[in-house]
Amino acid sequence: MVAIKDIRAANELIADGTAPRIAVFVGGTSGIGQLTIKALVTTGARVRIYLVGRKSSEDRSKTFIEEMHTVNPKAEIIWTEAEVSLLGETKRVCETIKTKEPHVDLLFLTTGYAPFCKRQETSEGIEESLSLSYYTRILFIMHLLPLLRKADAPRVVAVLGGGLERLNSLQLDDLELKKPENWSGRKAQSQNTTINTVAMDKLAGDNPDVTFIHSWPGWVDTGNVKRGQENGSLTSWIFRLLVEPLVATISFRLEDSGQRHLFQCTSALYGGRGVPWNSKPGINVNLEAGTGLFLVNPWGDCTPNNKNIVQLREKATETVWEHTQELLRPYL
User: Fold this and answer.
1) Which residues contact 138 (CB under 8 A, 6 or more apart)?
2) Around Cβ 218, how many Cβ atoms within 10 Å?
3) Model confidence pLDDT, tens digit, residues 186-226
4) Do residues 227 and 244 touch, judged by C-beta distance below 8 A?
5) Measured between alpha carbons, how far apart are the two ends of the chain, in Å?
6) Which whole-number Å values give the CA distances from 258 to 125, 199, 222, 328, in the listed order?
7) How many CB atoms are closer than 10 A to CB 228?
8) Residues 103, 148 contacting (CB under 8 angstroms)
9) pLDDT of residue 175
10) Is Hydrolase there in the keyword field (predicted)?
């Protein structure tokens, strides 16, 4: 476990020379994304942040941006409207960023929710929670990789369930979970976790100069547990009476979660580049230090899950990657 006092001490070393100069936060209008932006801005470092979110989040996001400018006038946060469940919108936003910036140091991805409700498709014909938690995330990475490669110490952090992936959680013959018997909130959440790791492992292998982190945040009481439920359903009542009080009891403090994820964005513990870390280096999914894909648990430890990663590479990577490329190709 990486103690929170050590995380805070490391984060206090963040300055203009060690902070990500240009960052893109997708899903940063609330929850862990917003907490991490706040932690980054509070360091006082000079940073430019693209905050990508849907129209309904614009007013409160602009209020948040004004608050952050008061905290740190050197931090520039650019509101960037997009319906990020849509691949076409994701492409549009990425193309805009690519015309404005010479590089991107950090891509931070938190979009998604646990869909404890009926299957709901976007206007592009993709189940919404799968699109948010997987397809648009991977599309953001692929579009911005040319800018990430131009950065000194580029990093991609995706927050979902790193370390929890298993081969038997995948429906390899139905990756979009279109068959009724394959659809449930639990199955969708497990599949999203695993295919994120599969795709990021492939991308990390193809881009050895970029550090990838798949983070499992643990319980953080951001209110996201309420999303994806049908009002008045039995599931919504169970969550209200049992799950929500439990989450409130066992969750990490919000500020601590922001500090922990800022640490993942900046510390040399993961990949050897960034804010100096004078203890044992982190180990990636190949059981090596250095760059690559790191699976990070709620306490900041690397949990390589190597046995499952090897199985996934042998039996799932080709199928997942070919499917992903076919679905994303019109938007690349």
Assistant:
1) 196, 199, 203, 324, 328
2) 13
3) 899 999 999 999 999 999 999 999 999 999 998 775 555 55
4) no
5) 39
6) 34, 25, 11, 31
7) 21
8) yes
9) 97
10) no
> Would you call 48 helix, strand, or coil by DSSP?
strand
* 263 closest CA partner among 281, 254, 275, 252: 275
Amino acid at 316: A
CA–CA dist 186, 199 (Å, integer): 20
Helix runs in 105-253, H state only: 128-130, 136-149, 185-206, 234-238, 244-250
Task: Please give the Cα distance from 32 to 179 (Å, whole number).
Answer: 32
Q: Which CATH class is domain 4-331?
A: alpha beta
Place of tokens 């894909």: 293
Q: Cβ atoms within 10 A of the Cβ of 17, count?
A: 10
Q: What are phi and psi of 256, to 5 degrees?
A: -65, -40
Residues in CB range of 293: below 8 A, 6 or more apart: 197, 200, 201, 204, 212, 213, 214, 284, 285
Sequence ranges of the domains in the chain: 4-331
For residue 51, the surrounding DSSP H or E stretch is strand 47-53
Its pTM stands at 0.92
Residue 77: name the closest of 88, 66, 87, 89 by CA: 66
Question: 68: which 2 tokens?
Answer: 């952050």
Contact in structure between 151 and 101 (CB atoms under 8 Å) = no
Structure tokens, 175? 């990756």
At residue 239, φ and ψ (nearest 5 deg) are -65, -40
d(C-alpha 233, C-alpha 120), whole Å: 16
- The residue written with tokens 């690559």 in the block is 292
Instruction: Quote the distance between the C-alpha of residue 261 and its chain's center.
Output: 10
Token code pair at residue 128:
């919404």
